[in-house]
Amino acid sequence: MMMNWQEKYRDKIYTAEEAVSHIRSGDKIIFGDWAGEPPVLIEALMAKANTLKNVEIIHGMSPGPNTHIDKAYEGHFHHTSLFLGEKTRSAYREGRVDFLGGSNFHEWPKIFARNPDINPHWAFIQLSPPDEAGDCSFGISCCFTEPAARTAAQVIAQINPNMPYMGGEKINLDAVDYLVPAETPLYSIGRLDIDKKTQTIADYVADLVEDGATIQLGIGTLPDAIARNLMSKHHLGVHSETLTEAMMELVEAGVIDNSMKTVNRGVCIGAQAAGSKKFYRYLDHHAMFATMPVDYVNDPFEIGKNYKQTSINGCIEVDLKGQANSESIGGIQYSGVGGQLDHVRGARLSEGGKSILTLNATAKDDTISKIVPFFEAGNVTTVSRYDIEYVVTEYGVADLKYKNERQRAEALIAIAHPKFRDQLRFQGKKIGVL
């Protein structure tokens, strides 16, 4: 009879408070990514904050409460964020969060290993219970959680029975220093109603997705609408940074079968998964879903091996030269690049691949055009004009691939809101693209 894992590894089992008691001032800690953040370890760390100074916490965008970023913890914790979200933007502006820009998502594991300011003393991660061999799944958050565990000097893992055991990368309990059995709910991501504008964009995008394509989609209302529009497609595959609930529905409908993929045939590959409790239960031991580290999933050369890899991402604005800004507003960092550029470039390397960027034509009740002659000072170029292919708004599709400057500008003006088109043509002539 197989020995109970808690009996076999009893010398490694601690409460969260006992495990976190080993943290010292000046240490660097990487939290597991996204919905895989280990809440009991974070709460235990916060409880001893007054005994610590200058602990560096490295994390991505989290759906959790993020109270450790509050000003009350200044001097005790400082943060390096790999992606700014709603809860970290104000702290970033106030100097309590440093943004790790200037690198693509698939390169982050190299940063953990090679940048002495980031190289972690500790990884706080969350895992599924082990199988008979003592191997745990990273479940819905392999992404940079696995590289964090791979890189850190010591690993503390919350072993959570709610974490689904998924195919893909595993870690053996022998490689974990402190085991904290604790059942907590996984962070879930809701789904919003789809408005008419979003549905129109989704209709255009769905027309661009071919049968047999391998798709990449993000999280949010528009990706959800796009996925629901794919129900009439055949033999789709998935190689995507994020696995979503809509993909589950496409698998159940037989639309996604991964039969045309060049690599990992038969399996939806992602770095992470986000959705409801129902989705997480569905993923548990499901043969068609696997999570792998971000330095594999988002490697453009791995992405590009797939047949008809189709990358679908949102952006904030596009200028008339065909450059996309997906991360800054008013000259200030607003989010992060995530895996967008990785997947754009991977799709370009793919046989029959397509890269699609989507955005609303306007903002603030049609008072601001998101097709612009040029970016405001300080706004960044996330996707260069040398990488961009399709741009989609509710007014249509602009195919920019292999087009000259004038053709690109004309195509973009055609999908801008009609009230801004004359102004864009005037500005386009001034900057020499028309």
Quickly describe the structure:
With 434 residues, this protein is α/β, with parallel strands linked by helices. It is 26% helix and 22% strand. It has 15 helices and 25 strands.
Shape: globular
Tally of separate helices: 15
- N-to-C terminal Cα separation, in Å? 76 Å
Strand content: 15-25%
Structural class: alpha/beta
Describe the largest sheet.
9 strands, mixed
Strand order of the largest sheet: 8-14-13-12-11-15-20-24-25
Q: What's the pLDDT, averaged over the residues?
A: 94
Radius of gyration: 22 Å
Total strands = 25
Uncertain runs are none
Helical content (DSSP H or I, runs of 4+) = 25-40%
Topology:
Layout lengths: L4 H4 L7 H5 L7 E4 L7 H9 L7 E5 L17 E5 L7 H5 L3 E3 L8 H7 L7 E6 L7 E3 L7 H7 L2 E6 L7 E2 L1 E3 L5 E4 L14 H13 L5 E3 L4 H8 L8 E8 H8 L15 E7 L2 H7 L5 E3 L2 H4 L2 H4 L5 E6 L2 E3 L4 E2 L2 E2 L2 E2 L6 H10 L4 E5 L3 E2 L4 E2 L1 E2 L17 E4 L2 E4 L5 H10 L3 H13 L4
Parallel strand pairs: 1-2, 1-5, 2-3, 3-4, 5-7, 7-10, 8-14, 11-12, 11-15, 12-13, 13-14, 15-20, 16-23, 20-24
Antiparallel strand pairs: 6-9, 16-17, 18-19, 21-22, 24-25
Helix pairs in contact: 7-8, 14-15
Keyphrases for this structure?
434 residues; alpha/beta; globular
Protein described:
- The protein is α/β, with parallel strands linked by helices and 434 residues long.
- 26% of the residues lie in helices and 22% in strands.
- It has 15 helices and 25 strands.
- A 9-stranded mixed sheet has the order 8-14-13-12-11-15-20-24-25, with helices on both faces. The protein has a 7-stranded parallel sheet with strand order 4-3-2-1-5-7-10, sandwiched between helices.
- β3, α4 and β4 form a beta-alpha-beta unit.
- α7 packs across α8 and α14 packs antiparallel against α15.
- The protein is globular.
- The mean pLDDT is 94.
